[in-house]
Amino acid sequence: MTDFFNTLIDRRGTHSSKWDAMQRLFDVSPDDGLAMWTADSCYPTAPCVIEAVRHAADHGIFGYSLEHDAYKSAVQWWMKERHGWDIQTDWVLTSQGLGNAIALCLDIWSDPGDPIVIFTPVYHEFAIKIEKSGRRVIACPLVRQGDRYELDLEDAQARLTGHEKMLIWCSPQNPSGRVWTPDELRAVADFAARNDLLLVSDEIHHDLVFPGTTFVPTDVAAPDHRNRMVTLTAASKTFNIAGQRTGNMIIPDDELRGAMQRRLASLDYKPSALGVAMITAAYTAEGAAWVDAQIEHLAANAALFDDGINAIPGVHSLPLESTYLAWVDFAGTGMSPEEVATRIREDAKIAVSPGPSFGSGGETFHRFNLAAPRSIIDEAVRRMQAAFADLQ
Ligand SMILES: Cc1ncc(COP(=O)(O)O)c(C=O)c1O
């Protein structure tokens, strides 16, 4: 399957936000630049998913469709098979992706002005969604210990005002790729319980975990706290189908789930039939085998990238436990963050996600998306080494 992930496909001019918005957002031209920012992949989805779309297209009718059990059973099967998580099919609700799910949670379970807790650095949209909805961010810094981020729950406790309603938690963690241990997950769930917080656990990156590391769902680690938990999952990163805008909100608690169901009904939300069909096809043994092959490809990409980037004096790519998002620290170069950003943009001509957007702790970092054919990673390393050649 190696060739599958290594075939270069030109995405320019296809309305791909990764490629067609890079000029506007990062001032890097798609003509000779590399898009390594937003979290989608530059290889096609699994053949079983493509086949499901082909089947639907051959049928040719895309009318109103009913919510069906096959979808929820596929989600149930996947969670058990891939994550050892027993869920009931009626716990599964869908949303228009996980950004939408986070916005819905904020809307239902907090009020304007409420403080909402996050641990930084973290996926920048958490803070953006909180602020856009008129809530306030309480940012609790993770502590960097060598190459790992750790929790400091004492420090976090001291930052709380007593009025917080919700903790938005990222597991595995974007941007560092950290996979939390069951003990850490229990500690986070206890922290949420002590402070009477709804625990929204965003587990969108749970499938792309590298060999030697095991991902555990927060619900599995802390089942006693499931009465305050909403777990968000999706096939979007795993199968590169984010454009289909379909995510899951897995809510075991009847009261919480009822509140979400009522809100979805009031908004006249209905899932996308094609999105649902694609995920039903993805969450199968065939889809699982494809994910395993993808992980092998990503692990090799990460090894190649880390070797090349870490050869630049003062630049350090943190070893990844999960995700295809390399988190690279430029602190050791002694350059200002602006100078680093300019060299990446103007000399290397690479569009990357700037570290400061992930909140405190991200100041000296940039995030590089490695979900691409190997030749792109090779080229990115070559360009980065040339852009920082004076450090050699
Ligand atoms: C942690 C995390 N949550 C949510 C999202 C966005 O999900 P969606 O595209 O389903 O809105 C991303 C995308 O990068 C992410 O990394």
Find the CATH superfamily of the largest domain.
Answer: Type I PLP-dependent aspartate aminotransferase-like (Major domain)
Named at the architecture level, the CATH assignment of the largest domain is 3-Layer(aba) Sandwich
Q: According to CATH, what is the topology of the largest domain? A: Aspartate Aminotransferase, domain 2
Largest sheet: 7 strands, mixed
Distance between the termini: 37 Å
Uncertain residue ranges: none
Structural class: alpha/beta
Total strands: the figure is 15
State the domain count.
2
Element-by-element helix/strand order: HHHEHHEHEHEEEHEHEHEEHHHEEHEEEH
Q: What is the CA-based Rg, rounded?
A: 21 Å
- Bound ions, cofactors and other small molecules, one mention each: pyridoxal-5'-phosphate
**Mean of the pLDDT scores?**
97
Number of helices: 15
State the CATH class of the largest domain. Alpha Beta
